[in-house]
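User: Predict the structure for this protein chain, please.
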Amino acid sequence: MLDFTDDKDLAGIKLLAVDMDLTLLADDGSLPDGMAARIEALDRAGVVFCPASGRPVPTLELAFPESAGLIATCGDNGGNVVYRGKTVYRDRIEPALWREVAARAVACADNVPVLCCYDHAVCLERDRAHFEGVYKYYKDIRWVESYDDVDDEANKFSMLFPAYDAEPAFGSIYQPEFGDKLYATNAGREWIDFMNLGVSKGEGVAHLCEHLGIDIADAAAVGDTYNDIPMLERVGHSFIVANAEAHMEAHARYRVPSNNDRGVAVLIDAILAAKGAA
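Assistant: Here is the predicted structure, written as structure tokens:
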């Protein structure tokens, strides 16, 4: 696999979409030092910075308080795309569909169901013991006894697996049962996410590029895991961090240093240098 320094057209990048967990964020959840200054420098150089994540837009915006007026956000795995506070694209799952997944999830005791509703989540009272695991991603949580009477509009249904065994459950149960109705994907080993067919980080980035008048060939993406594959395969400049699993090499062209070695920051600095803006 090629090193990121082998991309000889870094100067042509106009949008940089980056995954959060285990990509931009270190293992301890921290951002690289100086991210606000880098985002401002990217903006001056004509590059839109876009965190692209399974996290909802409000949580993504909280992560970049100094940069809210500059960035785009591709939240909910592409189901909610915002640019400088204005909605670019928003998807909605039909209640009948997410209720099918919810019924299957609730019947199992190995997961924490989470209905994702753009700016808040709806969880079951039975799962309050897992508050911290959900709150990491959803700051506004409504607790209910059941989903029977919930009519909140949603664009994603997620399942948290506290034992980090989402992958086998995905392969043996949820993809076979729901893969023809919804786009299901692993977000690491802890989460399974369900969106409408056709919704993904790749489509979210494509919607953003169309809105901004950017050729997607001039967009770059950095990721580490399954739900990053659609955007890595869609953009013109695809990068994985060195800590990504080996199977991800098939879906990107270049490698950057690991999340703990601040690979995204290293890439940003290289883009700025290529544009003469370092």
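The chain is about 30% helix and 25% strand.
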